């Protein structure tokens, strides 16, 4: 079985994988979830949360692209309970950095974390129901919106707290605004979080419905094929019986002719 590095090094996958690595993190997450949508039913939020954290680390690193340098990747791994000794980190980086450019994209990290191969990722996908794809896209959008609302509030609170610390007229005004924001933020945040969870649940339901529809269609096709084979066998048996009956009738007729002589 070819390794991930072998797959990326091949002409067949190199261009495809490079194109995916150039996409924004959320698009890489979308590609990953679409490729493994059935398997990750119930884990969509986990993947999207990881995506959000990866984007934060990218912003913190000052990266101009969509890949993390070694030091920041190490920090990211530690954040997600993947603390590694230096020797282990070197080995992990070799496995994660599939295009061997000493940087790591979110897609490379996902393949490493969930033990998937590039071949699995880029294999021809099943044609999924349009409603399922629409539900997945809506869930991603709702999750992004919920995260943005929460982070905007966090940023605003920090700004207001800094003004309060400075005191004076601006500090008093900021204190009043801060109290109002804290009072209403949980309602707004919770509403956004609920909308995100509802969208994720709809996606999971769509995956379930799609799987059931595929199973039903497969069963229907199986039964139709079995019926076709049964009909074909019955027709063949009838044809063979007719041939035997005809042969027996001919033999009986000949026997009768001999007896009559």
From TrEMBL:
Region called Disordered, residue ranges: 207-261
Listed GO CC annotations: cortical cytoskeleton
Residue stretches of biased makeup (Basic and acidic residues): 207-217, 225-251
GO biological process, one term: parallel actin filament bundle assembly
Compositional bias annotation for Low complexity: 252-261
Pfam families the UniProt entry points to: F_actin_bund_C
Listed InterPro entries: Calcium-reg_actin-bundling, F_actin_bund_C
GO MF terms, alphabetically ordered: actin filament binding
Domain Calcium-regulated actin-bundling protein C-terminal, chain residue ranges per copy: 152-225
Protein name: Calcium-regulated actin-bundling protein C-terminal domain-containing protein
Organism for this UniProt entry: Cymbomonas tetramitiformis
């Amino acid at each position: 079985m070819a390794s991930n590095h072998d797959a990326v090094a091949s002409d067949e996958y190199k261009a495809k994988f490079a194109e995916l690595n150039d996409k924004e993190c959320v698009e890489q997450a979308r590609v990953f979830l679409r490729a493994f949508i059935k398997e990750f039913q119930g884990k969509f939020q986990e993947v999207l949360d990881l995506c959000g954290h990866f984007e934060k680390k990218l912003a913190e690193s000052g990266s101009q692209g969509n890949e993390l340098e070694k030091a920041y990747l190490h920090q990211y791994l530690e954040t997600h309970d993947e603390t590694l000794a230096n020797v282990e980190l070197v080995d992990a980086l070799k496995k994660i950095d599939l295009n061997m450019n000493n940087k790591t994209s979110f897609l490379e990290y996902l393949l490493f974390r969930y033990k998937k191969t590039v071949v699995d990722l880029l294999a021809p996908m099943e044609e999924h129901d349009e409603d399922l794809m629409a539900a997945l896209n809506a869930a991603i959008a709702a999750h992004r919106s919920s995260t943005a609302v929460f982070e905007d509030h966090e940023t605003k609170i920090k700004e207001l707290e800094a003004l309060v610390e400075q005191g004076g007229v601006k500090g008093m005004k900021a204190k009043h605004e801060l109290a109002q924001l804290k009072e209403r933020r949980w309602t707004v945040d919770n509403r956004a979080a609920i909308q995100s969870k509802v969208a994720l649940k709809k996606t999971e339901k769509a995956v379930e419905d799609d799987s059931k529809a595929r199973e039903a269609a497969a069963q229907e096709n199986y039964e139709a094929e079995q019926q076709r084979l049964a009909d074909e066998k019955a027709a063949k048996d009838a044809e063979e019986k007719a041939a035997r009956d005809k042969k027996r009738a001919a033999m009986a007729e000949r026997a009768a002719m001999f007896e009559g002589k």
